Structure formats: C-alpha cells, structure tokens
C-alpha cells in the first residue's frame, strides 16, 4: 500500500517514467524470456521478440494521446501509425505484417475529425505496406479524454536472432542519427501554447522502417532506438544503459533544424531533450558508419543523417556530450525543469 | 652529570596546532641556544617539554616557546610547572608512535619560509638557486603525501633518496631540515625542465628558469607545473598576451589571478588595507581579491570588475622566477576546458593553449588549487578554501559517534569528513558535471579518507535530483542522508560558530528546496539539524530555466507588465522584440519557467535591467559586474516592499524590480545599482530581524554566495547589529557552495545524534 499518486512527470518518458515502470510493471511481468533469442519486458526495449520454431515474432504497442490532436506536420492518426511502425523498426522488424488499432473517442468530437485522423493513419499504413488488420472503437463521456486516444499494436516476423536490441553496442561502434532532432517536440509545444515564430515549425512524424532496412543493407547495424519521449538525450542514455558502456556525443554534430533551434533557444529548451517521431538512432560498426550514413542520405527522411558519436569502454551507462569547448554529462531529462547551474 | 645546584627544571605543556609543524625541532634548537638539557615529546595533551639549566635561561626559553613558534604552528597555551632538577645532560627528541601520529593530519602545503628564501638567494648556500628547497617550516605536504604516517617513503619525495648532505641535515635535531620529509637539494632533489609545446626540452635547472622568464617577457603563454597543480602564465601587464590567453582557452571574461613579485608591486595596481596586507603575506599565500586602482592593464585581466585576485610568490620556483622578471604575471589554473587542473607533465604539454611549459619530475599526489579569499565588510572570507588550509580540521559541534562523509553540491564542490568533534574539508574539486571531475571527486574522497584513517558510515549529499555528487554518494556507503541546500549553508555557519540555533539568511543562486522549488533568498529559522523557511524573496519565474541563468534579461519578462517586460528583455542584444514578446508569454504560461526565490537571480536581473551584463560567461558574472558598477555609486533611500504572504514575510520581487526600473529612468545606473543591492540587504534584514524578535533568537547570520558582496554584507550586518542582535558571518568556511560539504557534515552529524 502507498498513498503516492501518479503525476504528469511519471509520463514524460524520463527517469520518473522508468521508476514507475520498475515499480509497477517490471516486477510483475519482467521475467526474462526462456529463449535467449527473445527480448522480454524487463529490457524496456522498443518491443518484444518472441522466438518461434522457424524465426521470431516482434510485437509492440503504444497508446497515443497528443495535445493538440492535430498539429503542423501531422495528427494523432499519423502519429499512432508511425509510433508503432517505428518501434518495430527499432527492433529490426522493417517489414511488418500489420497493425491493430483501438480508438477511444470523446463524445462531442466532430466525425470529420475522426475521419481525418484515420485517413492520416491509412496513408502511412499504405506507404509502409502495413495495413490495419483489426481494431476497436469506444466512446467515452465528454472530458474523459481529449478528442481521441489511439492505441496501436504492431506485429512482424523476422529471422531468428535478426532483431536489433538496445543493448547491442560495443566499444568503438558509431552512433548515426537519421535526421534533425527535436522537430516534433518543439513544434508541438509551440502549437499547444500558440507561440508564433518567424520560421514555421513542423513535426518530423514519419515512418523510419525504410531507413533501418537501407542501413542494414550496407552495413552492420548493432543497435537501434527511436528517440521519442525524452528525445535524443533519453534515447542515447537508454543505449548506454542497456549495453553498459559509455557514449560520447559530439554536440556540434547532432543535426538540429534552424527553425527548431531558433524556437528552442527562445523557449530555453534543449532540442536534444524533446521528442522526435520520425528519426532513428543507430549503432553501427565503425568501418561501416560512413557507408550507412551516406546510404541514409539517399532515402526520404534521411537527407541530414549524421555520425554523431561513438561508444567507449569508459564511464559505463553514462553519455558524455563533447561541446567543442569541453565535456559534460548528457543526463536523462528529469521531467522537471530545474536549473542546476548557479 | 651536571651540578643540580643553581639549576632549575620545568615541565612545559604547549597546546594548539603544534604537531606536524616542526615544533619539536624548534624546541630542540631553542634548548641548544639557551644551553638547556631535557626532552620533548608529542602527547595527546599537546607537546610536552622538559627544560633544565640556568634559571634565567629556562625562563627565557619558555618565553620563546610562546613568542616565537614556528611559522606553521599556532600556540593556544604554554603552561610551565616546576620540577626537581635531575642533572641529566643532553636534549632528546622522543620519536612519536604511529598511534600519536593518527591524531595529527598531514600538514597543509605552504609557501617558502623566509629562511629557505634566504638559502636560495645566498650564492654560498648549497641550496643557491634551487627551486624545490623546503624545511620543516615550509613546503609541499598535502599535495605530495599518499598516506599516513607522514614520512618520506609515503610521499612523492620517495623517488628522491637523500644525498649525504641532506641526510645529515635530516638527522640533525638542531637543523631546520631535521625530519623535514620534503627536504631536497640540487644534488638529490627534483629537477626543472623547460619544454616547447611539442615536448622538446630546451633547458633544465636554473637555465630553465632563465628561458621561462625570456619567453614570458616575449608575450608567450607558458604552462608552469607547481606544487599541487599547474598554472597558465603570461605577462599580466601585456593586454595582447592576456587576450591571446583568453582566446586560446575559451575564457572570454573570467577574471584571471595575478601573481605579483612583492607587496610593493601589488600596491602599484591595487589598494591594500592593513588586514588585506596581512592575508596577502600569510605564508599560506592565498589569492586575495583586492580593489584595483584603475591601472589600464587590469581590464584585460578582470574585464568589467573593480577587483583583481592577487597572490604573492609561494614556491621557490616563483621566487626564482621573479628574480629574473620583475612584473606581475597572470597565474590561472591550467586545465583542459571543463576538466580539473593538470597534475602531470603530459597533461600540461597536451594543452593546445601553451607555447611552452616549465615542468618537473616531482609527482603531484593530490591536486590542490590555490585558495581564494576576499575581505568582505572587513572580514576575511574564503571564496575557495584549498591550498594552505587543507586538510586542517574545523569544529563539529555534535559528535555523531559515526563517520560522516559529505559530498557537496554541484559547483565549487569540496568533500568533507566528520569524525568525532571535528570536520576535515577537502581541497577544491570543482563543478562535478563531467567524468574527469567526477573521477577527481572520488580520488579526493579516497585520499581524504585515507589521511583521516577512516571509512564513512553515512554519506551526506544535496537533495537536488540532478546532482552527480549524489550518484557518487550512492556508490560510497550503505546509508545516505540528504541535506537541503540552504540548510547546509546555515548549518555551516552555525557549525563554525559552534552555535545551536540562529536566524540565518541564505542568499545565493540555486538550491533545491524541500518543496521542490529552486530557492536562494531564504530567511531560515535554523538549528544544526533542521531549518524552516520563515520568509525571504517572493517567488518569481525563470522563463527558459537555465536559459534565464545564462541570459538574465529573460528574468525581467516575469517581473513586469507586457510593455515594460518586452522592452527590458529586448535590451539584451541577442534577443529580438518578437522573441522578447514570446518570452513574456512563456513566463505567463509557465512553460519551462520554474519558480524561484533566488537572490542571485534577482541581482542578475538587475544587472541586465541596467544594461550592465546580459550574458553570464562565468559563474556569478552578472552579479559581480553589478557590484563593480554599484561600487562607484551611492544608494538612494527607498523602502523595500516587504509584506506578509501565506505565513511568510517576503520581499516582493516584482514590486522591488518595478521600483528599481522607475529609478533607472532618470538616475545614473551606478546609483541605481547601489540602491538595488541595498534594497536586497534591507529587505532580507527586515524579515530576519522581525523573525528574530518574534522568535526570541539572539543571533542573525548571513551565508550563501551573496555574502561575498561587500556592500550587501556590510549593510545587512549594520542593520542586524543596530537591532541589537549578534551578527554571524563566515570566517573559516566558504559562504558559497565550497562550504556546503562542511555544512552537510555538521547537519548530518547533528541529525544522527538526535
Ligand atoms: Fe548555494
Ligand atoms: Mg515506443
Ligand atoms: Zn623553509
Ligand atoms: Zn640533497
């Protein structure tokens, strides 16, 4: 028994989220899979890998709530499709079988809007070749949710052992990011608060399965994760944590779009700490890193791919940001904006 | 056996800091000088001496113990009682046992003593021109010692076996170098080497010093390996060289310390009070922050400030260098950006910013930065308590019966070990925000624990969820104990005054409060074990979080109505009118705008409002520049807006800022700056004094980084004393975050014994 309540910070995809998950979920469902080729819940990876006799099944699920439901560059429907397809891709499953989609709608929401969200979802599914195979719809009272909650589950088959675990990095591996970071998070904040900026902001929400597939065609990819909640900073910390090695990220190499950088500066937000919804961070064997980067640049959504860092044996579990004039830790954002400097 | 008639014998007990400072050899020399017999030994009561001889000589020798102790000793009491003369001849120094050594720590590092200075200048001395001479009264200690007991084989000097002459001196009780563990001469000691940046050796020994002087004179930037670390040096009087140093090190504005050849040379560019002169010439040689006198080269050394940090030469190397070059030198710590100071030749030669380096082959065991002090309101205050003072003990009012290790905060970190009735703070560690400094934190902790001969039962740390020092604490001991930031500051003040309770004002930049709010303008009713906020600054927002710390004009967005806010924020040349409008909206929405009650942020915001400083390029810059501006102005009489709010008394920050902005419309900025500082002092004093009266507390203290501000501290003390209270200010513990570890140790000890 405890009298604690869940706070918004628990949902921010940060250290607090991890604490809550550890307490409530991992203890209960986190038993390691019997088959070493599997990935279970305790790994807190992008999805689960369930080995079968002739291969493996990858499964992942996410609920999508977003404020506002429609934003520059996308909407909750597009987000729901991309989020799940990208989680599969981050597990190395780039050719999904299909999705399930459960929609909870707030009474009073115009039908046209729901229609538009589902259109967006369908467009992504068509492009990736990953149809919605099953679904569910529920209606709740006015105010019980904000317009819609969309829960998508994705399933894919892969060859046994072909998945990309978060823990796959080795010292020397390079980190490659497929494009500018922070576009989604900054665009969303601005839309939510109605802030105007000189250059328009657009979410990056897009599928990345083709990027992961292209990268694996030309090089040895050792790990992958999609930097969603908590942004790039959280994603790379998860990689360091999972593999129990250190990462060094060159701050100046991490791509940030000008419009996003400008808005982030005005708001005092670090683009490295807010969500992307159309990017992938890959660990790549050192000798293949440039080839992978160049290949990504030929793909839609990969034009600004960069090599941004490397794995090291020092400071296991920690990410160090090389700022060009010095080094500092790049922590997982805490979900509270507490200045540390004085 | 001598005749016992006409002889007098006494037993003398000397207490104070009298062990590990060459006291026994001093007693032996004194006995020899007065032709006395007897013995001397260390005990846990202090040094116990027996003198026997001619009655006049005995009295004179006892007086001598009191009046002329070795420079590193500090004598509390000399008590003599008569004994029966025995007629035994000779004078013995009893070796202390390892057990007795335990009660003593390794002594701190100090500057060269006058006798050694004479030796290196005396052409006939075997130490003539030798950079690394030392004796029992001076030289490196802490920085070269690995473990106790303090003997040569456990120091970096183990690599330099004594030559015949040095061995003789080491074994001669009447010699100043008797049992001086760091004794060395040109024959047996470490050697200097002057290298190009690529490592090529250009000269060694005294020739290396000649080259060093030549290259400095030519405007070069040179790394100099010293006692506990390394300096970057260039001619302070050559603004081009100083600019080059700034560019190459990426330190555009940080004030550099200066080393001047002599006290007379200091007087040529800074004003020195009698008390400051005493600090400056203290054998421990701290950097002393003085008011500059406007010399034109000072602005490159300390841009925009009215002060300059100055020290006098401390090692033999420095004295010899100034024998070749009679000009002040910049002496700033040599470190790769964001990392601790270099301690090895390779690390120093690896720096991209140097043209040459003077290195040597004596290993640095413990990195130890220069100490920095400033006389604030007439009292010496530590900005950094490190070389010369570490590892001395400070009082712990409550013995917890357990060893407490405290790990400090984030910036200016020190660690401290509380063991029994004392606390030993470590040297300066720095901002723990990168792996290299985190590694130094662990090293410094291990070294200190080994010197104290103890292991921690409990680790005390700050409550801020983002501080790395807390992670280190978690790794170090089973039990960890959080101490709130401003309680640690208050406990530090109470601890060094050995007081149980007081009203304490803790005014600084950032500290995580019990309610999760970033605090820093706190009036606390404090005891050693606990404290509660009774008032202070009202809360205001920091639009952009850390961005508002970096660009303080942002803070103004939260303090004014829209029109005034936008104009004020947009005065920052890096912020457009559109951006200023957005920042104002941001403050109103609360997005990424944490609330705070920080006095440091209030001063930063005033600095931006007056156009004095728009960007914090080093810690404290906006407030320091405001202080420099205010130093030229006169405060205008205003009443601080203080009111009751929800059980607290607060200085209402938005009203105060509006008042200041109204004044700024038609008064000179320097007068407004002085007014803002006074308003802050008055506001905090008003709340503190009323609280003290209501709660019947006799003492009112002032701590936190704002307590380095001369005018604010003075005004606050005057108000407190005028109201009939005892004022408590820091003497031995830094008011800033360098004193947190001590405060955490004291607070945790008190709480454990509750
Ligand atoms: Fe502080
Ligand atoms: Mg996910
Ligand atoms: Zn000496
Ligand atoms: Zn010698």
What is the number of helices of chain B?
25
Spell out which ligands are present.
fe (iii) ion, magnesium ion, zinc ion
Distance linking N and C termini of chain B: 60 Å
| Mean pLDDT over the full residue set of chain B | 94
Poorly predicted residue ranges of chain A? none
Shape of chain A: globular
Largest sheet of chain B: 12 strands, mixed
Under the CATH scheme, which class of the largest domain in chain A? Alpha Beta
User: Which strand order does the major sheet of chain A show?
Assistant: 9-11-8-12-10-13-14
Instruction: Count every beta strand of chain A, where a strand is a DSSP E run of 2 or more residues.
Output: 14
Low-confidence stretches of chain B: none
**What oligomeric state best describes the polypeptide chains here?**
heterodimer
Cα-atom radius of gyration of chain B? 27 Å
Relative helix content of chain A: 25-40%
The tally of strands of chain B reads: 32
SS strand fraction of chain A: 15-25%
Question: Would you give the CATH topology of the largest domain in chain A?
Answer: Phosphoribosyl-aminoimidazole Synthetase, Chain A, domain 2
From the N-terminal CA to the C-terminal CA of chain A, the straight-line distance is 39 Å
Any key phrases for this structure?
heterodimer; A: 342 residues; 60s Ribosomal Protein L30, Chain: A; 2 domains; 5-stranded mixed beta sheet; 8 helices; 30% helix; B: 754 residues; alpha/beta; binds fe (iii) ion; binds zinc ion
Structure overview:
The complex is a heterodimer of chains A (342) and B (754). Chain A is an alpha+beta fold and 342 residues long. Chain A has two domains: 31-158, 60s Ribosomal Protein L30, Chain: A (2-Layer Sandwich); 174-329, PurM-like C-terminal domain (Phosphoribosyl-aminoimidazole Synthetase, Chain A, domain 2), CATH 3.90.650.10. Helices cover 30% and strands 23% of the residues of chain A. Chain A has eight helices and 14 strands. Chain A has a seven-stranded mixed beta sheet with strand order 9-11-8-12-10-13-14. Chain A has a five-stranded mixed beta sheet with strand order 1-2-7-5-6, with helices on one face. In chain A, β13 (319-322) and β14 form a beta hairpin. In chain A, α2 runs parallel beside α3. The longest helix of chain B has 27 residues, at 669-695. The mean pLDDT of chain B is 94. Chain B is globular, with a radius of gyration of 27 Å. Helices cover 34% and strands 22% of the residues of chain B. In chain B, the strands form five sheets. In chain B, strands 6, 7, 8, 9, 10, 11, 12, 13, 14, 15, 16 and 17 form a twelve-stranded mixed beta sheet that branches. In chain B, strands 29-30-26-25-24-31-32 form a seven-stranded mixed beta sheet, sandwiched between helices. Chain B is α/β, with parallel strands linked by helices and 754 residues long. In chain B, a hairpin with a 5-residue loop joins β24 (501-512) and β25. Classes of the chains: A alpha+beta (342), B alpha/beta (754). At the A-B interface, α7 and β14 of A face β24, α16 and α19 of B. The site of one zinc ion (ZN) has 8 residues of chain B, from α4. Chain A: This is Hydrogenase expression/formation protein HypE. Chain A: Residues 171-320 form the PurM-like C-terminal domain. Chain A: Residues 45-157 form the PurM-like N-terminal domain. Chain A: Belongs to the HypE family. Chain A: It holds the Pfam family AIRS_C.
């Amino acid at each position: 028994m405890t009298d604690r309540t869940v706070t918004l910070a628990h949902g921010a995809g940060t250290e607090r989220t991890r604490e809550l998950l550890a307490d409530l979920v991992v203890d209960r469902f986190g038993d390691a899979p019997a088959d070493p080729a599997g990935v279970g819940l305790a790994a807190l990876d992008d999805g689960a890998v369930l080995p079968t006799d002739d291969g493996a099944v990858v499964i992942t699920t996410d609920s999508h709530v977003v404020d506002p439901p429609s934003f520059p560059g996308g909407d909750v429907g597009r987000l729901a499709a991309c989020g799940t397809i990208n989680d599969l891709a981050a597990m190395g499953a780039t050719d999904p079988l299909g999705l399930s989609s459960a929609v909870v709608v707030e009474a009073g929401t115009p039908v046209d809007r729901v229609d538009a969200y589902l259109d967006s979802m369908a467009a992504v599914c068509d492009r990736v070749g990953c149809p919605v195979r099953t679904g569910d719809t529920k209606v709740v009272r006015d105010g019980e949710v904000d317009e819609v909650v969309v829960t998508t589950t994705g399933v894919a088959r892969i060859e046994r052992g072909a998945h990309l675990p978060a823990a796959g990095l080795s010292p020397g591996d390079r980190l490659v990011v497929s494009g500018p970071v922070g576009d989604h998070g900054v665009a969303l904040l601005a839309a939510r608060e109605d802030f105007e900026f000189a250059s328009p902001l657009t979410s990056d929400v897009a599928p990345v399965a083709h990027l992961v597939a292209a990268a694996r065609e030309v090089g040895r990819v050792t790990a992958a994760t999609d930097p969603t909640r908590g942004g790039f900073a959280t994603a790379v910390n998860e990689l360091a944590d999972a593999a129990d090695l250190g990462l060094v990220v060159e701050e100046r190499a991490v791509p940030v779009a000008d419009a996003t950088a400008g808005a982030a500066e005005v708001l005092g937000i670090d683009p490295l700490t807010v969500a992307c919804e159309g990017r992938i961070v890959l660990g790549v064997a050192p000798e293949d890193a440039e080839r992978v980067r160049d290949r990504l640049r030929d793909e839609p959504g990969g034009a600004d791919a960069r090599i941004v860092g490397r794995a090291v044996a020092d400071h296991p579990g920690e990410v160090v940001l090389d700022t060009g004039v010095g080094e500092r830790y790049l922590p997982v954002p805490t979900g509270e904006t507490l200045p540390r400097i004085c | 056996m001598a005749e016992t008639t006409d002889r007098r014998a006494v037993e003398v007990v000397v207490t104070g800091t009298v062990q590990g400072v060459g006291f026994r050899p001093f007693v032996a020399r004194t006995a020899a000088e007065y032709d006395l017999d007897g013995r001397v030994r260390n005990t846990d009561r202090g040094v116990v001496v027996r003198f026997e001889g001619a009655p006049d000589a005995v009295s004179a020798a006892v007086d001598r113990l009191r009046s002329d102790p070795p420079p590193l000793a500090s004598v509390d009491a000399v008590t003599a009682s008569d004994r029966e003369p025995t007629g035994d001849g000779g004078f013995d120094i009893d070796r202390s046992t390892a057990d007795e050594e335990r009660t003593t720590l390794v002594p701190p590092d100090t500057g060269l003593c006058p006798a050694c200075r004479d030796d290196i200048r005396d052409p006939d001395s075997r130490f003539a021109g030798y950079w690394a001479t030392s004796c029992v009264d001076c030289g490196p200690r802490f920085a070269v010692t690995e473990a106790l007991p303090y003997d040569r084989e456990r120091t970096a000097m183990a690599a330099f076996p004594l030559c015949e002459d040095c061995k003789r001196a080491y074994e001669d009780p009447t010699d100043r170098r008797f049992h001086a563990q760091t004794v060395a001469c040109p024959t047996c000691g470490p050697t200097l080497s002057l290298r190009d940046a690529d490592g090529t050796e250009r000269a060694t020994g005294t020739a290396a010093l000649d080259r060093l002087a030549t290259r400095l004179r030519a405007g070069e930037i040179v790394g100099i390996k010293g006692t506990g670390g390394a300096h970057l040096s260039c001619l302070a009087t050559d603004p081009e060289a100083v600019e080059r140093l700034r560019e190459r090190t990426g330190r555009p504005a940080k004030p550099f310390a200066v080393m001047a050849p002599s006290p007379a040379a200091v007087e040529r560019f800074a004003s020195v009070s009698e008390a400051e002169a005493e600090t400056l010439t203290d054998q421990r040689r701290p950097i002393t922050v003085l008011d500059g006198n406007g010399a034109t080269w000072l602005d490159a050394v300390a841009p925009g400030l009215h002060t300059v940090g100055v020290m006098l030469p401390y090692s033999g190397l420095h004295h010899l260098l100034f024998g070749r070059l009679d000009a002040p030198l910049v002496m700033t710590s040599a470190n790769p950006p964001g990392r601790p100071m270099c301690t090895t030749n390779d690390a120093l030669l690896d720096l991209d910013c140097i043209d040459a380096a003077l290195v040597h082959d004596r290993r640095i065991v413990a990195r130890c930065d220069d100490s920095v002090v400033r006389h604030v309101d007439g009292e010496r205050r530590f900005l950094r308590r490190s070389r010369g003072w570490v590892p001395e003990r400070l009082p712990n009012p409550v013995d917890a019966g357990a060893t407490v290790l405290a790990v400090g905060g984030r910036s200016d970190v020190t660690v401290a070990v509380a063991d029994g009735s004392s606390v030993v703070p470590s040297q300066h560690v720095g901002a723990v925000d990168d792996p290299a400094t985190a590694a130094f934190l662990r090293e410094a902790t291990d070294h200190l624990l080994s010197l104290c001969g103890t292991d921690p039962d409990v680790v005390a740390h700050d409550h801020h969820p983002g501080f790395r020092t807390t992670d280190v604490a978690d790794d170090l001991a089973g039990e960890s104990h959080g101490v709130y930031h401003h309680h640690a500051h208050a406990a530090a003040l109470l601890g060094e005054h050995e007081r149980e309770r007081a009203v304490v004002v803790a005014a600084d930049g950032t500290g995580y409060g019990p309610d999760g709010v970033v605090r820093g303008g706190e009036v606390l009713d404090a005891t050693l074990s606990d404290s509660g906020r009774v008032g202070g600054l009202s809360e205001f927002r920091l639009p952009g979080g850390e961005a508002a710390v970096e660009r303080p004009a942002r803070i103004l967005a939260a303090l004014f109505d829209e029109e005034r806010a936008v104009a004020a924020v947009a005065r920052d040349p890096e912020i457009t009118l559109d951006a200023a409008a957005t920042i104002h909206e941001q403050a109103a929405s609360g997005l990424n705008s944490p609330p705070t009650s920080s006095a440091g942020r209030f001063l930063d915001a005033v600095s931006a409002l007056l156009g004095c400083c728009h960007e914090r390029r080093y810690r404290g810059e906006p407030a320091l520049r405001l202080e420099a501006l205010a130093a030229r102005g006169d405060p205008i009489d205003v009443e601080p807006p203080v009111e009751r709010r929800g059980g607290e008394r607060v200085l209402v920050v938005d009203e105060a800022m509006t008042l200041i902005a109204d004044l700024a419309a038609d008064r000179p900025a320097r007068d407004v700056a002085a007014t803002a500082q006074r308003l802050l002092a008055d506001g905090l004093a008003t709340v503190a004094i009323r609280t003290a009266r209501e709660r019947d507390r006799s003492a009112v203290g002032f701590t936190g980084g704002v307590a380095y501000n001369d005018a604010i501290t003075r005004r606050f003390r005057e108000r407190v004393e005028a109201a009939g209270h005892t004022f408590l200010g820091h003497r031995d513990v830094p008011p800033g975050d360098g004193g947190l570890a001590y405060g955490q140790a004291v607070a945790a000890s008190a709480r454990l014994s509750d």
